[in-house]
Specification:
Largest sheet: 4 strands, antiparallel
Number of strands: 13
Radius of gyration: 23 Å
Strand content: 15-25%
Oligomer: single chain
Helix content: under 10%
Order of helices and strands: EEHHHHEEEEEEEEEEE
Shape: elongated
Distance between the termini: 33 Å
């Protein structure tokens, strides 16, 4: 998934003011975070390293703790909560924790016991040892803990989870079944000479998905299907913008996002982009958003404005999954 346009934005996050920057030609895995995709439609956070490694053929013993990015900010207490049975092991039996504890004059006891030591409670493992010096498997069962068991897992980059950036969709827990209850086919691709189109089936979660295009350039893909589906119009988000986002991050990008639909869930938005009447072709793209769960504020997401990322190309008569809602204008 390669982004086509460069950009940068600063916003309030879990670590104070944060800045996200991306460059045209860059993979989204290098700047998008796990928390941006925290949706039941993907359920990425339910995966663990063992499952990913098994599918991808990755030898985890050949990786280091530092390759699993979120270990960089885990304290001993965090690890005891996340990793099955870790707390019952002795400090000396787990080399990275033994070496970490020795930095503070501790050389005995169970890992659960020393994790309750007030002098260690706020110190990440990475501040006591160099994580690059330890195999990923040197902490027993780390690979069997689901991602969402780790503290602030949402802040990890996608590329910070080995093998995740190239994991195919059929291995994502929430995408194994696709809702095919509302499907149409591409009838006619019509360019921006079209104006003031009102039979829209595109929009946003905030404005609904029947937002008319009341302007001069209303390029769109016209649908055909059962009943009133025929003649409906999926407007091009290249020309029409709608309201998006919620919470404090709603203000990003002026509160606007390209019109479109979310047939694959809320993790990204599918947007009709380039339309070629002559060849009967419609190019769609993906747009992404920034999401954060901020203490005392809760979950907040920006509009879908990070994109475009090339997605599915349709020809006339190709089927198109429209997803929910199935409201028709």
């Amino acid at each position: 998934m390669i982004i086509s346009i460069s950009g940068s934005v600063t916003y309030p996050g879990t670590r104070g003011r944060e800045t996200r920057t991306w460059t045209a030609g860059q993979s989204i895995s290098e700047f998008m975070e796990l928390g941006d995709f925290e949706t039941p439609q993907l359920a990425i956070e339910n995966l663990n390293l063992s499952t990913i490694a098994s599918v991808q053929g990755i030898n985890l013993s050949g990786l280091t703790l530092d390759d699993f990015q979120l270990t960089q900010w885990q304290t001993l207490s965090d690890l005891v909560k996340a990793v099955p049975d870790l707390g019952n092991r002795s400090v000396t039996s787990v080399r990275p924790i033994r070496d970490f504890a020795e930095q503070f004059g501790i050389s005995s006891g169970t890992i659960a016991d020393i994790s309750r030591d007030s002098s260690l409670s706020n110190i990440p493992l990475s501040q006591g040892i160099n994580l690059n010096n330890y195999a990923l498997t040197s902490i027993p069962n780390l690979q069997n803990a689901s991602i969402n068991q780790f503290n602030n897992w949402q802040d990890s980059l996608i590329i910070g989870v080995p093998g995740l950036s190239t994991l195919t969709w059929d291995n994502l827990p929430g995408l194994r079944t696709l809702d095919l209850s509302f499907v149409a086919s591409l009838d006619l691709p019509l360019r921006d000479i079209e104006a003031n189109r009102i039979r829209s089936i595109s929009g946003s979660y905030q404005d609904g998905f029947n937002v008319p295009c009341l302007q001069n350039n209303c390029a769109h893909a016209e649908m055909s299907g059962i009943g009133k589906t025929t003649g409906t119009q999926w407007m091009s988000g290249k020309f029409q913008k709608v309201n998006g986002g919620f919470g404090i991050l709603k203000a990003l990008n002026g509160g606007k996002e390209p019109t479109g639909r979310n047939p694959f869930g809320s993790s990204f938005k599918q947007v009709v982009w380039n339309i070629y009447e002559g060849s009967g072709e419609v190019e769609t793209t993906m747009f992404f958003r920034i999401c954060k769960t901020i203490p005392l504020i809760g979950r907040t997401c920006s509009p879908y404005f990070i994109g475009p990322v090339p997605f599915i190309v349709y020809q006339e008569k190709d089927p198109i999954v429209l997803g929910q809602p199935n409201s028709l204008p």
